[in-house]
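=== RUN LOG ===
request id: a7f3
mode: sequence -> structure
chains: 1
length: 245
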Amino acid sequence: MTGWVIVAGLGPGAEDLVTPEVSTVLALATDVVGYIPYVARIAPRTGLTLHPSDNRVELDRAHAALEMAAAGRRVVVVSSGDPGVFGMASALFEALETAPQHQGLEIRILPGITAMLAAAARAGAPLGHDFCAINLSDNLKPFAEVERRLRHAARGGFAMAFYNPRSKSRPLQFARVLEILREECEPGRLITFARAVSTPEEVLTTVALSDAMPEMADMRTVVLVGNEATRRVGRWVYTPRSVPA
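=== RESULT ===
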């Protein structure tokens, strides 16, 4: 049997936002590897082995997937959203870099709908012009780097999408993020807190920067920050596609 590894995005949460391509490879897989809550989304079936693991062992997970594929298994590594956006695609290639014996394996990356795009669609079009995405977690980079990138993005006039804004282990850092935004942006800048988008727990709240509070975000929240031109039209939030000369 010829094995393969496919890294697949499961989308933001709703099953109808999983692409048909991803559903097809999941039906062919012998093994599914991933973070515990993402693997829990995969229905058990005969011939399929599920391998859930903690969120701090991405490289171990990637190495295990490569080893199983080398042994002839058909392995799907699952991420939420899109696997190339703060997901397992980079971890797999990082593992592959140190395992040249596996570089001949069939490897594919299947895209998914990432959380910032699902959240932006629910809100309207807050990312309608130039934007950037920043992971606010300091698990894999120092928080000083988060602060540096945040300032440059704000000064550059980008709309911004924040992943992993606030957790039990990082309860205070998002308050610092809001402080920096208030130093760099006008108080009326619009911020959308999009929690659990596409699930029954979905909640969207849009406020001015001056009214934003750290408690509005948690690990299930994507935070969308408009640029200086972002505005409301009815219940929608959008960023115009043009910039005056």
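=== NOTES ===
Helices lie at 20-28, 36-39, 58-70, 88-97, 115-123, 143-155, 173-184.
The mean pLDDT is 95.
=== END ===
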